[in-house]
């Protein structure tokens, strides 16, 4: 078997029920109990659920009402993001002991390229084991890991032996692994695309691989090439240590629906103030202002405008958000407002050069 593309040693580390695990660690009384971080209010949404709660079908992004219905014994815990960030930094310090090629995806997961690593260890599998043990020793929390030749396969593999486990997909196992994979696991295949693939008789990676590039281009347009490549183990995205944000935003969900623009102005001012704080912390500014409006019937509307100059000041953000609010009549009462800035000044900053190296096929992960 030959791969005509750079072959790397990639680890995807994913903390196990991170927010919930932190709460259980800091409060021993919560250990072994079904808990949900967030979701406690009438309009609340679950940010994370412990494994004890997941047994009842409680999941992140689920409404607190439904979570409580699924698990009457569920304990809601208020999120403490400063604490999660503190522990996340401890975890990343462990990552950097092995490589500088670390791409955080969130506070609780990251990609690591250990093809060439600081320990001189040729085995990515052993490195992953060491990292998971060090995280446990340092934080008292468990992590799972996936190891393979690219980011896509490593991420899929990290979910296989959760919690507190890992899975390696070696180069010679890649095609067999992908062939057996449910089509919904493939990157870029959402609910709508999956339904279309089902109609075309595509249920697994093996089914997808049987389809020609011409067929996939015809059915899925520009995405056809991606589906054709990824099922053959071709995913060339490198681990990017500097993840440049494309937008920065802030939003608020209200305890009661708002029916008049006048009642929304004070809320918009608070949101603009929070956005200014985030922009200044990251030393960012943007040209495109977007107002996000979620109505009481959960329909979503966005209104945007692009300025000829960068802004980061609360007053300018608020002025433009107000203009967008009054741009057209509201369609219903409003349960959420948000403001974001895109078209950021990050485009003018230097980007880290991708120093990819091509390796021979036969090496042990």
From TrEMBL:
<dbReference type="GO" id="GO:0003887">
    <property type="term" value="F:DNA-directed DNA polymerase activity"/>
</dbReference>
<feature type="binding site">
    <location>
        <position position="108"/>
    </location>
    <ligand>
        <name>Mg(2+)</name>
    </ligand>
</feature>
<comment type="similarity">
    <text>Belongs to the DNA polymerase type-Y family.</text>
</comment>
<dbReference type="InterPro" id="IPR017961">
    <property type="entry name" value="DNA_pol_Y-fam_little_finger"/>
</dbReference>
<dbReference type="InterPro" id="IPR036775">
    <property type="entry name" value="DNA_pol_Y-fam_lit_finger_sf"/>
</dbReference>
<comment type="subunit">
    <text>Monomer.</text>
</comment>
<protein>
    <recommendedName>
        <fullName>DNA polymerase IV</fullName>
        <ecNumber>2.7.7.7</ecNumber>
    </recommendedName>
</protein>
<keyword id="KW-0239">DNA-directed DNA polymerase</keyword>
<feature type="domain" description="UmuC">
    <location>
        <begin position="10"/>
        <end position="190"/>
    </location>
</feature>
<dbReference type="InterPro" id="IPR043502">
    <property type="entry name" value="DNA/RNA_pol_sf"/>
</dbReference>
<dbReference type="InterPro" id="IPR043128">
    <property type="entry name" value="Rev_trsase/Diguanyl_cyclase"/>
</dbReference>
<keyword id="KW-0515">Mutator protein</keyword>
<dbReference type="InterPro" id="IPR050116">
    <property type="entry name" value="DNA_polymerase-Y"/>
</dbReference>
<keyword id="KW-0479">Metal-binding</keyword>
<keyword id="KW-0238">DNA-binding</keyword>
<dbReference type="GO" id="GO:0009432">
    <property type="term" value="P:SOS response"/>
</dbReference>
<dbReference type="Pfam" id="PF11798">
    <property type="entry name" value="IMS_HHH"/>
</dbReference>
<keyword id="KW-0548">Nucleotidyltransferase</keyword>
<dbReference type="Pfam" id="PF11799">
    <property type="entry name" value="IMS_C"/>
</dbReference>
<keyword id="KW-0234">DNA repair</keyword>
<feature type="binding site">
    <location>
        <position position="14"/>
    </location>
    <ligand>
        <name>Mg(2+)</name>
    </ligand>
</feature>
<dbReference type="Pfam" id="PF00817">
    <property type="entry name" value="IMS"/>
</dbReference>
<feature type="site" description="Substrate discrimination">
    <location>
        <position position="19"/>
    </location>
</feature>
<dbReference type="InterPro" id="IPR022880">
    <property type="entry name" value="DNApol_IV"/>
</dbReference>
<feature type="coiled-coil region">
    <location>
        <begin position="258"/>
        <end position="285"/>
    </location>
</feature>
<feature type="active site">
    <location>
        <position position="109"/>
    </location>
</feature>
<keyword id="KW-0175">Coiled coil</keyword>
<keyword id="KW-0963">Cytoplasm</keyword>
<dbReference type="InterPro" id="IPR001126">
    <property type="entry name" value="UmuC"/>
</dbReference>
<keyword id="KW-0460">Magnesium</keyword>
<dbReference type="GO" id="GO:0042276">
    <property type="term" value="P:error-prone translesion synthesis"/>
</dbReference>
<dbReference type="GO" id="GO:0006281">
    <property type="term" value="P:DNA repair"/>
</dbReference>
<keyword id="KW-0808">Transferase</keyword>
<comment type="function">
    <text>Poorly processive, error-prone DNA polymerase involved in untargeted mutagenesis. Copies undamaged DNA at stalled replication forks, which arise in vivo from mismatched or misaligned primer ends. These misaligned primers can be extended by PolIV. Exhibits no 3'-5' exonuclease (proofreading) activity. May be involved in translesional synthesis, in conjunction with the beta clamp from PolIII.</text>
</comment>
<dbReference type="GO" id="GO:0003684">
    <property type="term" value="F:damaged DNA binding"/>
</dbReference>
<keyword id="KW-0227">DNA damage</keyword>
<keyword id="KW-0235">DNA replication</keyword>
<dbReference type="GO" id="GO:0005829">
    <property type="term" value="C:cytosol"/>
</dbReference>
<dbReference type="GO" id="GO:0006261">
    <property type="term" value="P:DNA-templated DNA replication"/>
</dbReference>
<dbReference type="GO" id="GO:0000287">
    <property type="term" value="F:magnesium ion binding"/>
</dbReference>
<dbReference type="InterPro" id="IPR024728">
    <property type="entry name" value="PolY_HhH_motif"/>
</dbReference>
């Amino acid at each position: 078997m030959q791969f005509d593309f750079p072959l790397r040693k990639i680890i995807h580390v994913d903390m196990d029920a991170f927010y919930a695990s932190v709460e259980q660690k800091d409060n021993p009384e919560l250990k072994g109990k079904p808990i949900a971080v967030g979701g406690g209010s009438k309009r609340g949404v679950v940010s994370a659920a412990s494994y004890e709660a997941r047994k009842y079908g409680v999941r992140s992004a689920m409404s607190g009402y439904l979570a409580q219905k699924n698990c009457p014994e569920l304990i809601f815990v208020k999120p403490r993001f400063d604490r999660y960030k503190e522990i996340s930094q401890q975890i990343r310090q462990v990552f950097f002991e092995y490589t500088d090629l670390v791409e955080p995806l969130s506070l609780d997961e990251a990609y690591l390229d250990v093809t060439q690593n600081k320990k001189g260890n040729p085995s990515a599998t052993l490195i992953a084991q060491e990292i998971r043990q060090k995280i446990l020793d340092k934080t008292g929390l468990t992590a799972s890991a996936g190891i393979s030749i690219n980011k896509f396969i490593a991420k899929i593999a990290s979910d296989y032996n959760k919690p507190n486990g890992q899975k390696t997909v070696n180069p010679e196992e890649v095609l067999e692994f992908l062939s057996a994979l449910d089509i919904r696991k493939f990157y870029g295949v959402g609910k709508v695309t999956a339904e279309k693939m089902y109609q075309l008789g595509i249920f697994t990676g093996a089914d997808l691989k049987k389809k020609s590039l011409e067929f996939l281009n015809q059915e899925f347009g520009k995405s056809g090439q991606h589906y054709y490549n990824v099922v053959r183990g071709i995913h060339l995205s490198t681990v990017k240590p500097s993840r440049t944000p494309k937008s920065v935003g802030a939003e608020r969900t209200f305890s009661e629906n708002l029916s008049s623009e006048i009642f929304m102005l004070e809320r918009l001012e608070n949101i603009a103030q929070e956005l200014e704080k985030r922009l200044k912390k990251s030393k960012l500014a943007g040209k495109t202002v977007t107002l996000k409006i979620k109505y009481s019937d959960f329909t979503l509307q966005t209104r945007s405008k692009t300025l000829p100059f960068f802004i980061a000041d609360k007053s300018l953000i608020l002025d433009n958000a107000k203009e967008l609010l009054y741009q057209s009549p509201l369609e219903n009462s409003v349960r959420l407002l948000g403001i974001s800035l895109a078209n950021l000044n990050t485009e003018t900053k230097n980007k880290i050069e991708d120093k990819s190296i091509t390796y021979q096929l036969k090496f042990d992960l």
